[in-house]
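Today's session is about reading a structure prediction critically. Students often jump straight to the picture, but the first step is always the sequence itself: look for stretches that repeat, for charged clusters, for runs of hydrophobic residues. Only then move on to the predicted structure, which in these notes is written as discrete structure tokens rather than atom positions. Here is the chain we will use throughout the hour.
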Amino acid sequence: AVSFAESWALAAAHTRTLSMSFMFGVRAARLSLRCPTGPASRPSSMGHSLRCYSSRPSRFGNKKRTQVLEQEPEAARGGDWVSQSQVKEAPPTAAGAPATFPSYEQRQQQAGSQYESLSDGVVAHMRRVYATLATGIGISAAASVTAMATPLGLVHPLIPGLGAMVPLLGLMYTSKHTHSQTLRAGLFAAFTGLSGWAMAPLLLVALKVSPAIVPQALAITTGLFGTMTALSLFAKPGSMLRLGVPLGAGMLMLLGCGVAGMFVPVTSAWYPLLHSINLYGGLGIFTLYIAYDTQNMINEYEMGEDDHLKHAVDLFINFKVIFQRVLLLLMGRSDD
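Below is the predicted structure for this chain, in token form.
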């Protein structure tokens, strides 16, 4: 039983390494996306303007520039596309110079928490994202139960793990504006279902160790997810986005440890160290990614990116990775 558990844990580690390689490559490729320089808006006929939003990069999504058609204000100042309801009269300066808009740092100092700055549109978008996330977790759980109850549970986890990247790529390179929503919802269901299938062997081993491990891991993961979500909402707007670079460096570290672990024998003295870095480091990094992705979702929506499926994928992968690592930690504790 121990050798069986070790073999499936090693296979799951290889699957996570390949997944991280894929995710890191996508994230690095998207750093080159920028909004073109030039005027912020181009006037068109019928009193409208095209506004270009430059969204921050997300770990899982090929979010290109979004051009949003906005109603031109009737009395725009100097062709400015900002509506008059958004423009507040600033007090005149001492020298009588024309008033200017506050800087980004000044707006952050004046603003309260992220929760206080949520608009009705952002709240509605977040509800759609979390409803989609809950649906994806349910599909993944159903796929895991089905695989454990059938011979599908004996399939090597690399097969469904690599297969899950195909619908993930489909979601990344499609858009709600150019592709059918039914097609993209099917890709999301396929991705979460294959992800659940890939976890079935690990769940089988965990249930053999102790039937209480799986519900305990699910409760701990849900608690961590809720805590980090609340932390991001009660922090200052955009404060969690500063974690993007350190978290990206952590992903690179996990990628290096995972690739090294694929070539280091289990009997080597380096294997426990690499395994611990991957296990504990991945748990900490993806826990912080929940707070980052929550504020990034809000920020991207405010800049025109309202694709709830891509945002739900970000959060689903965080939930899945944390659940796997908590499960492995509980299994190791039970063995001790």
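Discussion point for the tutorial: The radius of gyration is 23 Å.
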